């Protein structure tokens, strides 16, 4: 046996145990080794076998050779070529049915599974309608359904796929009917022979009716009988029934609800809508361009290069005719190049693109392109672009990864947030400085202005400050998002549960930042006309969270300057040089009034609260007046005039070294000869009030339960207080001049304007813990916050509350109240919701105890009128109480019943 035959035999042997991806055994070197010949000689023989068609060659590095027959058997296909550029190139040509459709694993996944169902459904499949704009792949999909049927053994290999474009018969419905159903001899003049219709010809196979909206109503009706029972009449024969079991696939570019008879639509159980090219993910667009250029390359047997800019133009153009138009554009381009180049390799430049593509690019882009833009990329490299994700999606992946790792390693939120913020900052930096992914859309300017407006509205509403340079970065991020919107949506659909989990963490832990972020994202998406996904909200929230809040002993620096970004730039530079975030900057319009500035500072203080000391650096002497107007402050404020980066640095260092405001002012005065002012804060301690409408004892117990949940003493008091006094005096009550009351927790809302109320029952129902956390968390680090939250959940369980608040047996009381509630619900025909029910448990158990201790309310104002108006309802509640009255030997006074009715 000669060497060449032996090589072929050896290759065949190796191929029988081939696993795709395991290629070394198929290189010339490995085969040469087996026969002790030189690699060159082996290559020469193998190439001769390739020419003869017995061996397939993969032009990768190193080159691989496979035995054609074995390979074809393994791949269950017939290979068209003997030479392929890469294994991937080979695999692409061997793709089966739906796999040939780009996006089969992505944006078309759900739709393809419907197609599979339509083919598979016993006995003869289900009619299906494909709806979508021109060129989106409707015909391709129809044909692949047929191929799928064959591969799955559902359709016979000999069965046919017949396509009919109904629009060609729009003016001749008779001819269309004739074509579809066939005719008998003599059916009309000229019908000399019996003729089979397409329904008959496609029997056992597929009949594809494209542009079905052109099917006249009579013709649609004629199809009903066939769709219902599989039988039809031929033209000219209304007596005999003919039978066919062809499957029907319809396609239309028009809205099916408008274009087809309702009775027709009812007979098509599966309707799928195929997305336009614009709605496809960027990766799929890249893959389409890559595949089409590769097809041209294989067809012309020439290497193809494309310039950076031409590639971007192909990628960015909005193809109204979708994939079909993209394909035409690529073919026209290649034809253009062929005409005036005719060399070995095709080089596609921007000017080779069809004119209409060129025109749709923005002028700036076309005028200013440089050498680098015209750098030629071998099209095989486009594949790399396809595989590498865009920076936005990389950020998505990394954030998710970080979240998972931090969770599995048990890190607290603070650490997770810090890490995520770092990733986001890197992404922002990339957007700012990148060359490769630079934006070529001109809407950035517009977006920046729009975002500026949105941010100022949102900032006002939430007393939030976002520095102007940060707004610039957000606008870049939104532009980036708009380019990747489809990919991002797809990514999110794969990770929806995780995104939801992260989103709820954000919502709970950083409610305020989350609300601000949501408003910015919602407004931006409204104005950009793209739907932004929830993960973008998460990213924006993370970007806004201020992780530095609790550092530097509650001492912060704020820079206020006129001008677009003066303050934020000084703050940025100083923070950068100081290595930590010490300063915030508020950029102010030139004509801003002193009152407005004071408002800004006060809002800032509220937002940052609790802070001990604020060093305010301003840019003009005229601003000195503001210190006289700041009233609200309960922290010390130092004001320094004529801020510069140097003063900011000096102040920053001092803050880092723990100096107090007065010391800092003295230093600055000495080194810079600047005028300074000191405003001593009216220090009011923060406090939470606990109240109970029916007795101080319960208020005291609530306060004890709250205090005992704190993992450490904090600079905020929790004070049990008299409900009636607050009700009578509101904010004028003495307690308000003594304390900065941040929250009231109790059994009945005293409605004090501007002070948040948290009901005991909602705390028990665990649905309002965040309202409490918001006020307590500034005093606790992340771990302590977690502990506090856990303690609250433990302390405020229903039985614990009842146990704590009363001396009664909790289980028993809860049972009794349950009976009471059930009776009231029945008699009043209403369902009492869980939170109100919880409130009743708490209230009634306290009530029983009070009555047993003879502390019930005997009289309240307005009871007589109430009784007169609500006699029936009062009777119902009294009746429902009868069991409790008997059990505990108490009598429920009318004011208590009135309270309960009001509560309900
Ligand atoms: N997902 C896809 N992957 C690869 N090629 C595709 C894809 N979708 C469409 N094509 C190609 O795009 C071209 C247009 O597709 P097709 O003719 O199926 O679209 P259509 O929706 O039927 O158009 P029309 O409504 O104009 O008849 C075809 O050459 C097809 O092979």
Automatic annotation (TrEMBL):
Residues 554-682 form the PTS EIIA type-4 domain. Pfam families: PRD, Sigma54_activat. PANTHER family: PSP OPERON TRANSCRIPTIONAL ACTIVATOR, TRANSCRIPTIONAL REGULATORY PROTEIN. GO terms for cellular component: membrane. This is PRD domain/Sigma-54 interaction domain containing transcriptional regulator. Keywords: ATP-binding, DNA-binding, Nucleotide-binding, Transferase. It comes from Faecalicoccus pleomorphus. Residues 808-904 form the PRD domain.
């Amino acid at each position: 046996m000669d060497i060449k035959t032996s090589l072929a035999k050896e290759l065949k042997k190796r191929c029988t145990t081939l696993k795709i991806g395991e290629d070394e055994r198929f290189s010339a070197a490995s085969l040469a080794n087996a026969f002790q010949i030189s690699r060159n000689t082996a290559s020469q023989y193998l190439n001769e076998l390739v020419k003869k068609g017995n061996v397939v060659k993969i032009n990768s590095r190193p080159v691989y050779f496979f035995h054609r027959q074995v390979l074809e058997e393994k791949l269950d296909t017939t290979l068209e070529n003997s030479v392929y550029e890469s294994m991937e190139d080979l695999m692409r040509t061997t793709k089966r049915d739906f796999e040939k459709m780009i996006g089969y694993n992505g944006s078309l996944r759900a739709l393809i599974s419907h197609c599979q169902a339509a083919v598979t459904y016993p006995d003869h499949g289900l009619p299906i309608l494909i709806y979508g704009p021109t060129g989106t792949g409707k015909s391709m999909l129809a044909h692949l359904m047929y191929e799928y049927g064959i591969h799955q053994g559902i359709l016979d290999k000999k069965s046919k796929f017949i396509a009919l474009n109904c629009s060609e018969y729009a003016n001749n419905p008779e001819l269309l009917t004739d074509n579809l159903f066939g005719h008998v001899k003599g059916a009309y003049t000229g019908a000399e022979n019996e003729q089979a219709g397409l329904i008959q010809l496609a029997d056992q196979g597929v009949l594809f009716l494209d542009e079905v909206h052109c099917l006249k109503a009579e013709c649609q009706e004629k199809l009903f009988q066939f769709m219902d029972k599989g039988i039809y009449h031929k033209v000219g024969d209304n007596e005999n029934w003919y039978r066919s079991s062809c499957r029907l696939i319809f396609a239309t570019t028009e809205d099916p609800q408008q274009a087809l008879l309702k009775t027709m639509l009812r007979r098509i159980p599966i309707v799928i809508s195929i997305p336009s090219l614009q709605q496809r993910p960027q990766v799929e667009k890249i893959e389409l361009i890559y595949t089409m250029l590769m097809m041209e390359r294989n067809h012309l047997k020439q290497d193809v290069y494309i310039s950076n800019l031409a590639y971007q133009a192909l990628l960015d153009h909005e193809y109204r005719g979708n994939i079909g138009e993209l394909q035409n554009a690529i073919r026209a381009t290649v034809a253009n190049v062929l005409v005036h180049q005719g060399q070995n390799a095709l080089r596609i430049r921007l000017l080779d693109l069809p004119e209409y593509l060129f025109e749709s690019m923005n002028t700036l882009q076309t005028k200013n392109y440089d050498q680098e833009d015209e750098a030629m990329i071998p099209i095989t490299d486009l594949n790399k672009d396809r595989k590498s994700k865009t920076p936005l999606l990389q950020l998505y992946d990394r954030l998710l990864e970080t979240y998972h790792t931090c969770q599995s390693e048990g890190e607290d939120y603070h650490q997770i947030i810090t890490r995520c913020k770092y990733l986001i900052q890197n992404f922002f930096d990339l957007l700012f400085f990148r060359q490769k992914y630079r934006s070529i859309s001109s809407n950035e300017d517009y977006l920046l202005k729009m975002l500026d407006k949105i941010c100022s509205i949102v900032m006002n509403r939430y007393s939030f400050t976002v520095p102007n340079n940060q707004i610039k970065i957000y606008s870049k991020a939104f532009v980036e998002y708009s380019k990747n919107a489809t990919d991002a949506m797809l990514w999110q659909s794969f990770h929806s549960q995780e995104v939801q989990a992260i989103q709820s963490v954000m919502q709970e832990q950083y409610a305020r930042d989350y609300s601000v972020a949501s408003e910015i994202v919602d407004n931006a998406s409204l104005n950009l006309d793209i739907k932004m996904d929830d993960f973008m909200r998460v990213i924006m929230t993370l970007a806004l969270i201020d992780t530095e809040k609790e550092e530097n002993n509650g001492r912060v620096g704020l820079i206020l300057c006129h001008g677009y970004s003066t303050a934020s730039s000084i703050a940025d530079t100083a923070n950068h040089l100081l290595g930590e975030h010490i300063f915030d900057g508020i950029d102010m319009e030139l004509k801003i009034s002193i009152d407005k500035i004071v408002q800004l500072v006060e809002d800032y203080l509220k937002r940052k609260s609790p802070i001990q000391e604020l060093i305010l650096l301003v840019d003009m002497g005229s601003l000195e007046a503001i210190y006289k107007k700041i009233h609200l402050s309960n922290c010390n404020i130092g004001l320094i005039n004529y801020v510069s980066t140097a003063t900011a640095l000096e102040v920053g260092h001092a803050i880092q070294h723990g100096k107090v405001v007065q010391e800092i002012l003295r230093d600055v005065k000495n080194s810079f000869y600047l005028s300074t002012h000191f405003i001593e804060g009216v220090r009011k301690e923060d406090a939470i009030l606990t109240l109970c409408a029916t007795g101080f004892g319960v208020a005291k117990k609530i306060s004890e339960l709250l205090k005992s949940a704190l993992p450490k003493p904090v600079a905020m008091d929790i004070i049990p207080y008299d409900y009636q006094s607050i009700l009578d005096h509101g904010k004028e009550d003495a307690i308000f001049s003594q304390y900065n009351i941040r929250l009231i927790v109790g059994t009945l809302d005293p409605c004090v304007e501007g002070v948040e109320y948290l009901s005991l029952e909602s705390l028990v129902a665990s649905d309002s813990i965040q309202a409490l956390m918001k006020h307590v968390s500034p005093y606790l680090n992340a771990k302590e916050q977690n502990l506090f939250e856990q303690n609250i959940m433990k302390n405020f369980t229903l039985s614990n509350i009842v146990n704590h608040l009363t001396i009664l047996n909790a289980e028993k009381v809860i049972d009794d109240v349950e009976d009471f509630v059930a009776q009231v619900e029945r008699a009043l025909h209403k369902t009492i919701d869980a939170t109100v029910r919880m409130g009743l448990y708490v209230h009634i158990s306290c009530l029983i105890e009070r009555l047993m201790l003879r502390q019930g309310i005997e009289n309240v104002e307005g009871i007589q009128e109430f009784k007169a108006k609500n006699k029936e309802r009062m009777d119902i509640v009294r009746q429902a109480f009868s069991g409790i009255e008997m059990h505990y030997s108490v009598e429920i006074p009318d004011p208590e019943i009135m309270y309960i009715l009001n509560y309900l």
